[in-house]
Amino acid sequence: MADFIKVHIARPGGPGGESLWATRINATSAKLDNIPFGTEECTLGDVVEIDSRNEIIGVIERVARTRHGTYKKVNGKDAQQTQWDKVRHHFERYDVHCESAVPGFFAVAVPNDVSNEQLTFIFGACAVPLTLLRTTP
């Protein structure tokens, strides 16, 4: 059975940070099971080095990169869910996993073999107008 743990990554240049789910590999490493919203230092599927308090202290294997996007939020819970489902299913067609923080804001785990140009195309091809917030490596 998998050993699920919460790991923590400090916010670059500031206080606080973010907790992420991970699967423990051994005492000093874990594989991330979700996408962070507050950092682009690591992402879903990356193998990270952790200390005894499960604080992320480095990335051992980077399989993807985190990017963030926005879209204009619609009114109504059902309409918001329908809109998010369109966004999520769109990215799934390109094997890009995404997670929503709140309606209108989401994070994507972009596989290393998807270039920034390809990612820009994927964002532009969605039926829901999207804005890619960052395109640098």
Q: What does this molecule look like?
A:
There is one protein chain. With 137 residues, the protein is an alpha+beta fold. Helices cover 18% and strands 40% of the residues. The strands form two sheets. It has a five-stranded antiparallel β-sheet, with no helix packed on it. A four-stranded antiparallel β-sheet has the order 7-8-6-9, with helices on one face. The longest helix is centred in the middle third of the chain and has 16 residues, at 77-92. 25% of the residues are buried. The mean pLDDT is 92.
What are its keywords?
137 residues, 4-stranded antiparallel beta sheet, 2 helices, 18% helix
**N-to-C terminal Cα separation, in Å?**
35 Å
Low-confidence stretches: none
Average predicted local confidence, pLDDT: 92
How much of the polypeptide forms β-strand, as a percent range? 35-45%
Largest sheet: 5 strands, antiparallel
Number of strands: 9
Shape annotation: globular
Strand and helix order: EEEEEEHEEHE
Q: What is the helix fraction of residues, given as a range?
A: 10-25%
> What is the overall number of helices?
2
| Helix/strand/pairing category | alpha+beta
- What is the spatial order of strands in the main beta sheet? 1-2-3-4-5
**Radius of gyration over alpha carbons?**
16 Å
